[in-house]
Specification:
Structural class: mainly alpha
Helix content: over 70%
Distance between the termini: 38 Å
Strand content: under 5%
Radius of gyration: 20 Å
Number of domains: 2
Number of helices: 5
Order of helices and strands: HHHHH
Shape: extended
């Protein structure tokens, strides 16, 4: 893991707090308006709108979001360990379910990688055209 100076660590924590504030506000809106959409999704939409309209510049959350994405696989470990407690689930139809989950996971990884490459190519083309 990267070493962070105290200043960078404080900035990183601040950015993560900003992301949690968006999530909290989304939860608040969802519960107050009794929306059928989870609050985390409402918060994500609010964050998207604020980034799109440049109310919140990308640099205010970029490092914090990147850090959370790096730590994301750790959040799935407890769920995976929890499934092991139910061996009946893993037999019979559970094997089919595991196959479906594996296939969909690999497809998601492939499509995400392909999409990321396409976006990166387009960004490089835009930068190249600006420099000309």
């Amino acid at each position: 893991m990267k070493k962070y100076s105290r200043r960078k660590l404080a900035i990183l924590i601040g950015q993560i707090i900003v992301l949690f504030i968006f999530s909290y506000v989304g939860d608040l809106i969802s519960s107050l308006l009794k929306l059928p959409i989870p609050g985390s999704i409402v918060g994500l939409l609010l964050l998207f709108l604020c980034l799109h309209t440049k109310v919140v510049p990308e640099k205010y959350i970029k490092d914090g979001a990147g850090f959370i994405l790096v730590m994301l696989p750790l959040f799935f470990i407890p769920a995976t360990v929890g499934i092991i407690q139910y061996p009946d689930f893993l037999s019979g139809k559970g094997a089919i379910l595991i196959g479906i989950v594996m296939i969909s996971t690999f497809m998601t990884m492939i499509i995400s990688g392909y999409s990321s490459q396409r976006v990166e190519i387009k960004m490089k083309e835009r930068e190249a055209s600006r420099l000309e």
